[in-house]
Amino acid sequence: MPVPNLSQEVHAWLERNGWTPDRDIGEVEAGELIDARVQDAERQGSPLVPSDAAVRIIRNYGLLTLQHPRIDEFAMEMRPTVGYDGDAALVSELAVQLGRSLFPVGYDSSEYGLILVDEAGRFFHLHHTGAYFWGFDEQDAFARFLSGVDALDAEEFFV
């Protein structure tokens, strides 16, 4: 699956965390992860539909633990199946506010905030303190994660 141009820093960090440029967990394994998340959202009464961008992210980075290089207890866990009761409604509500569909692709290991990707490939973080913009694509999201740049409030992207 094609990936955007990654900076040398992001590329090296990803490789240290088990990623390779030709990595693809495959249609079957990605489909199982996605189906589990879709079924859980349906159980919660708030359907979630994966976009092509979310599927691409899951295929390229799914099941990786992307450890922060300076904070031991902080990683991007690229597992879309992790969530909590009521999270699907919150994801759906945020999607409406953004005017674009969202789908979970992982969570942060520190406080279990959901990592979401919209249909344009933008990254958002749904945390107990609110919703945040994490990047315009994975290069941007991963670079912001590595640099510790403060996330922007997702409200800046509401329609």
Please tell me about this protein's structure.
This protein has 159 residues and is of the alpha+beta class. It has one domain (8-157). It has helices at 8-16, 26-44, 52-61, 87-98, 138-147, and strands spanning 65-67, 75-77, 102-108, 114-118, 123-127, 130-135, 152-153. Strands 1-2-3-4-5-6-7 form a seven-stranded antiparallel beta sheet. A hairpin with a 2-residue loop joins strand 5 and strand 6. The radius of gyration is 14 Å and the shape is globular. The termini are far apart.
Number of domains: 1
The portion of residues assigned to helices is 25-40%
What structural class should be given to the helix and strand makeup?
Answer: alpha+beta
Radius of gyration: 14 Å
Biggest sheet: strands, sense, closure? 7 strands, antiparallel
Would you kindly provide a brief summary of this structure?
The chain is α+β, with helices and mostly antiparallel strands. Helix content is 38%, strand content 19%.
Write the layout of secondary structure elements.
Elements (H helix, E strand, L loop, with lengths): L7 H9 L9 H19 L7 H10 L3 E3 L7 E3 L9 H12 L3 E7 L5 E5 L4 E5 L2 E6 L2 H10 L4 E2 L6
Antiparallel strand pairs: 1-2, 2-3, 3-4, 4-5, 5-6, 6-7
Write a concise keyword list for the protein shown above.
alpha+beta, 159 residues, single chain
